[in-house]
Amino acid sequence: MASTTDPFKMITRIDLEELTGLSRSTIYDRMNSKSKRYDPDFPKPVKFGHLTRWRLSEVQAWIQSKIEARNHPQKTA
């Protein structure tokens, strides 16, 4: 998948798997509030009829937030 600067670029689940390294089941667990793997910050999909897509810019922002959290861990008291 080529990088792009289009803020509305939409990607497929397979693209999402490639970008994040997450499996299909983990992706859907991250979106399921009843799952122990739920992540409220995980990008929400956009439906186009029967098609499901994610905004590339939102996925990239989510990945960047994980990198920043790793680089600046919060201290616990």
Task: Explain the overall architecture.
The model has no long low-confidence stretch (mean pLDDT 92). Helix content is 42%, strand content 13%. The chain has a three-stranded antiparallel beta sheet. β2 and β3 form a beta hairpin. The chain has helices at residues 13-20, 24-31, 56-71; strands at residues 10-11, 46-48, 51-55. With 77 residues, it is an alpha+beta fold. It has one domain. It starts with 9 loop residues before the first strand and ends in a 6-residue tail after the last helix. It is globular, with a radius of gyration of 14 Å. The chain is built from three helices and three strands, in the order βααββα.
SSE topology:
Blueprint: E1 10-11, H1 13-20, H2 24-31, E2 46-48, E3 51-55, H3 56-71
Antiparallel strand pairs: 1-3, 2-3
Features:
3 helices; alpha+beta; three-stranded antiparallel sheet; 77 residues; globular
What's the gist of this structure?
42% of the residues lie in helices and 13% in strands.
Strand content: 5-15%
Count of runs of 4 or more consecutive helical residues: 3
**What is the typical, i.e. mean, pLDDT?**
92
Number of discrete domains = 1
